[in-house]
Fold these 2 entries.
Entry 1:
Amino acid sequence: MVVNARALLTDALTSSGLLDGYDWSLEVRPRRRSVGVTVEPGGRVVIAVPPTARAEHASRLIEIVASNAQWLSTHVAKSCASVPTPPEVSLNDGDGFSLLGNSHSLRLVDAGSVSTERRPCYTSWYLNVPRRKVAAHGARPIIEWYMTEGTRWVEAQAPRWLPRLDLTGDKTPELRVVDLGKRRWGVYRPNHHRVELHWTLFQLPPDLVEHVLVHELVHATRPGGSAHGPEWRKRMTAFMPRWQHLRKELDDRGRSVWTGAVQQRQG
Ligand SMILES: [Zn+2]
């Protein structure tokens, strides 16, 4: 490959705007025979080209990247979201926390309050937490952040569902994000007409969280029969046809969420 072909092809791709917002690079791969568009863990995009690539291949390269645009956006989102959250955290800089599928890297700060700040990977953020709060309360400020953000999400999403489920007016259930312990993602409490969602749930992608919200809201419509009997299933399928698929994914991915445990810090 001519030395500056890489730079020229990189410029051409940059000008095309197709990769705006991505953390990406164009790499020459000696064994490649064709262009490859790949996503690395964490969401970094690599456009791999063969050593025979030349500057005059720019328009063909742009075509290839354009034809992969949809695939790319889906896979970068997934890959950013799948940065593994360890079951235990140490409360040190760099600990990973996922919120609704977006990864956040803990950054202890000397002043201010708990806040988030965008990082270069476009679905990735810093989670700024004051050092003194961690020293005094351990993981509590982070759990409270999940509860606050979870409540915000529920308040934004519930209005789309309540009218469809005929849960408006005095039929509207109370909605809360709480700690439900180890075994449940959500619960409907008929005596209080209240739906409660577990804060740990909000580490998962929005479609999985929404599935739990709808599951509990369908309980709140008080279908006849047993809790997950034919009437409940019929309503669940009517409102969310993919619910069984989503439940399976929840079972799979839900196993690796952080439940608030903190490793003993060294020293
Ligand atoms: Zn249920």
Entry 2:
Amino acid sequence: MIKVRRLGHATISTPDMDGQIDYYGNVLGLRVAERSNDRAFLVSKQGFEAIELVRGEKGHLKRLSFQIAPGTDLNDVVKELQKLGIKSEKRSGISPGVAEAVTLIDPKGTPVDLYAEYKFHEAAQPAYFNILKLGHVAYRVLDVQEIVKFYTEVLGFRVSDWRGDFFVFMRCNTDHHSLNFIIDEKPQLHHIAFEVLDWSEINKAGDWLARNKIHLVWGPGRHIIGHNVATYHRNSDLVRVEIFTEMDQMKDEALGYFDPRPWHQEFPLYPKMHGPETLRNYWGYGSERVIQGYQTNELPQYEAIRG
Ligand SMILES: [Fe+2]
């Protein structure tokens, strides 16, 4: 089994390169590290690659990348995958920070680049608010069990939580989730999420988005699953983008519980299957107080995030 250590960058297509570069660069405060006519890389101010834009349809996830342990021989990765019956190939020139990777295709058809060596980009001046990294990518799939089996057995992910048997949250390091998958008839990107340091950054992000005429469609609120404080908006390509902080941390896999936090409902808090009707939020829209008198799916904000 390969052991993924962190989510790298996501490759997303757009028919509007200039508009999306403006959004990720000037609104979200990422830095354009490299740009050609039909490809651009955007990195955090601390040097992590976050988004690759390529020319194409609006908001399709074209590739995903993950870092494995530095020092790993990529030829061994190819052999290991072969043993598991997975075809892969070595590729070079993945991104400005990634010279070489092993590429395989996940069960939903997304090319996945695994790399061992990563060259940090130079740090840049902090922005109005600061994205630390691409935190997670959520995707709608036809067969959630198949994709859980692949990401656990081939790439070393662990299941953090389930909502019913249709929505799964998976981790590859201390973060509660770097990937989540929800069953849907139409496989497609659900949302991408960027991590910020703390609440004050969430506050500044909301102010800055509004200054740029982008309004939140959901949040702020604290989720129950993962407990991240999250806000959601859509960019001009209608990609749903979450900005979050305070996600649950599994600091020691051997202990098996998430690091206790004052807002948890259980102590200790272990990974589990939540009931299908578990509320989206502990507080904020989608929490118990707000949905009194409503069906959850009647809430305008809920529709905005779901639709
Ligand atoms: Fe999310």
